[in-house]
Records
---
Amino acid sequence: MPVQFLVAKIAGEILPKACFAAASDAARECQIRFTSVCPLRRFCLVCLASICGSRLEFEVIDKRVKSVEEAVAGIRDGSTVLVAGFGIVGVADHLLEALHDQGAKDLTIVANNSGNGDYGLARLINSGRVRKVICSYPRSGDYSAFLNAYKAKTLELELVPQGTISERMRAAAAGLGGFFSPVSAHTKLAEGKETREIDGRLHVFEKPLRGDVALLKANKADRWGNLTYLKSARNFNPVMAMAAELSIVEVDEMVDLGALDPEAVATPGVFIDRVVVVGGNA
Amino acid sequence: MTSPAYTRLTRDQMAWRAAQDLPEGCFVNLGIGIPTLAASYVPAGREVIFHSENGVIGLGPKPKPGEEDPNITDAGKNLSTLVTGGCYVHHADAFLMIRGGHLDVSLLGAFEVSETGDLANWTTEDPAFPPGVGGAMDLAVGAREIRVLMAHTHKSGSPRILKRCSLPLTAPGVVKRIYTDLAVIDVTAKGLMVLEMIPGMTLELLQTMTEPKLHLAESWQTLAPPQAMAA
């Protein structure tokens, strides 16, 4: 709900006009969190201090963190990490490098491909941090890191059709318990899965796929975490942003709240937890 | 040893041939490999919208030197362009388009195709060569029509058009047309129908390179792409 609407609604009912003006100004300046100490906690704002006499705190929503180290702090061993990108486009390589330095291990990686060269995801694999990769197409670019681990059988591969990966994450984000898809019916990839004939066509049951963490790459962000992307670098980013407990994004540029065209925001900030600027603007 | 009395089509010539069949206004996905090349050979003046699985709606030709944008690639991760009127969607929507029957045609590469249109293009089962399904299974069941572009035989000369695929299937009974470096063949209820053959090719010779029985369409034609692409 827009804060000013809330202010107007409260003000119209219980607050004197002068108080409303002050509250309205305050509301314009910041997004206000209702404090738990106020007995009227559903209402908040400066003016209520004079009514309930409680301590009031103002907190703005600010997802920004100062460094990539801070951005990946707390990622635990054994996490399922959603790694956005298609080939080398739209991949959060700075965050992946920081995750490598952070040291989390026994990771399950969900990604379309399996990393390139010896940086980012490939470096995590080369360092033995990855237990399992869930992907659609590991053979992309220089995938030697994956190939070596795959041949040495130190890395488990779960091969999933590309649209099934994205839809399984979307289902998790949407609070669904899975879905039936005709994709992979009558093939080896459907072995062991529940099937059902729907309108004369065989469908395969697919479970939702949720991440503990999503590592995302966007172009611009504001402090609420609203995101815009560049061209096909959008790819898996929006759906992964929605499907993880902790969604972390690296961006090229931070802009003021209100500077992003609301029509162009592809990921609303409600899905984002941490934003860090990387590259030339860091 | 005599050289054959025919010259196999190049990859570009195969892509050119497939592009000629794309109707005005259709919405088409191009798989990786030879299909990607088809974007460059749509007849001038014909509007076809190319879908790329990574969310590019209106994929254009290769960028001109100096105009490359690292954020626009095709499904094969090659640098590409967006046509005027094109736009971007995220992955879940790109595959909604694929699965939901919104694509008119998908051109795919293949390892093997059967006489009933079974498609095998995701794994060779070689332990040293990890499988990669990508968007192939989604496209195979989702696009309204699947057309395959592939070399007619393996390098060893053994056929890739088989009675039954030897490799694990991508989807059964989905391929409608096969463009090879020797012929254009339709998969029909009556069997494989040869629509076109390259100059110097005969049905008898083609049959020796194809496992299931071939039928020659009454109105069959010579398959003769522009020679300029032969290089």
Note: The two ends of chain B are 24 Å apart (CA to CA).
---
Amino acid sequence: MAREKQALASTASGKGRLVDLPRGEPRAELHRELVGHLRQNRTQLREEWVARIGEARLLQAMTQEEIFAEATSVYDSYVAALETGTLDDLTAYARNLSERIIPRGVETHEVVGIVLLLRDVLARSLFAKYQADFEKLNRILDAYEPAANRIANTVAVGFVQERERVIRQQQEAIRELSTPVLQVRERLLILPIIGVIDPMRARQLTEQLLRGIRENRAKVVVIDITGVAAMDATVANHLVQTVEASRLLGATVIVTGLSPEIAQTLVTIGVDLGKMNTVGDLQGGIEQAERLLGYKVELG
Amino acid sequence: MQVPILKQGHVLIATIQAALTDADLLELRSGLVQQVVRYRSSGVIVDVTAMDVMDSFASRTLLEISRMIRLRGADTVIVGIQPEVAFAMVQLGVTLEDIPTALDLEEGLAYLQQTSRSIN
Amino acid sequence: MAEEVQILVTCDKDVVTARQQGRTAARAAGFSESEATLVATAISELARNIVSYAQRGTVTVARLNGHRGTAGLKIVASDAGPGIADVVQALRDGYSSSGGLGLGLPGVRRLMDEFDIASVPGSGTTVTVTKWLK
């Protein structure tokens, strides 16, 4: 059974199954009844839910038509999750939905809010239907509640993770903007590094440079570290790795502005400075780069 | 899975696809050497653009390929290493030592032309 | 998306499967293409060690939820092979790509954030590595 194969990390039920039916009524029967009820009353329940969303003043960034369309999709995915007992489709849908609504400014509390409202609306309808048979109501709720909670959790977590991903992307973009890789001539890139570099920034610089080499088809890169005060062994290692990785992309690296202190650090970590292409200053580095590329060098 | 090897003049071009197993790499090694001998090629380009991971076995095998081909008097150039793969390689510590590398097929061919010109 | 996936590793094809699954899981967990490549590379090394030295083992890739809500990926490469006699030696840098010696463990450690190894000669080896979303 598909349910059996699903390995859910959450230990809420401890059994890894979404729908866990108690003894008494044959499980399949109870389950079918639950899903059947939700399907039959789809239109009415969905309307009720949309009304409650409006009352709670949620999703104000969206139009009524949009809310209705998304509500329909969420409702159907919800019931499908209850029916199949698996969360894969719902998780995928939640992520998809999040991708759409995050740019619209929808916030976490709204998403959590509407899923909880749906859970309530469905629960109330179960109360209404089975109020005459208290025992049966209990059995139905025993089946419904843990599943409904798991679903609410899945949708909320999916939304939050998508949000975090977007934030990370934006942070990455900001970092990139603050460290330009400059193309000054064809096939020649310059990466001026200024200030303090921590391992994280060093890693990000390397990735940016490598992408730049590929996009600009650079054959020579001048990394200028005149503006770098000091470098510890970790960051020095990153520099060496950057040089090696650039070579793998077919580019030669010239390091300029190497201070005696940094040169010492490099030697300490075992770098053979004789093998590294270094020039005193940026201007000299650019001239050497142009020579390597076969450009005529103007003597000033 | 066979790696396609094309002949372009004096150069052989092997294009590696993703999902290459160790066995495939070893097959490529013997295949390339055979073809270099058969066509008396002066250069070999191994295009790894589609290779999603370059681990220690892959880099070792590429080194072996380069050495075996050198014994037949030909040059090898590895082209198309992706930025993410290059980054992972240096973290892992595999360097492809002194095998020439180039950005892409075009650069690789230019490199081989230059090398053969300087020899002649 | 399943929270955990397990791959049985017995041949070089499985090494490919394991690293592809690892890449997919890393992307699904929110890691960048670059980080996913690091994960795939680490898995490739670990899975290959299993095939080379133990003939058979498993690679498990699991999603983690760390403190403060950060997400992560945990990979466990386990086998019942001959084990590593000298773990300290195996972890010493000096692994050379051309030498063919060594298990590439120092490299794997560099690729990931956390690294743990337990090995008993005659019983088997378990390597556990973790990467966190930053």
Note: Chain C has four helices and five strands.
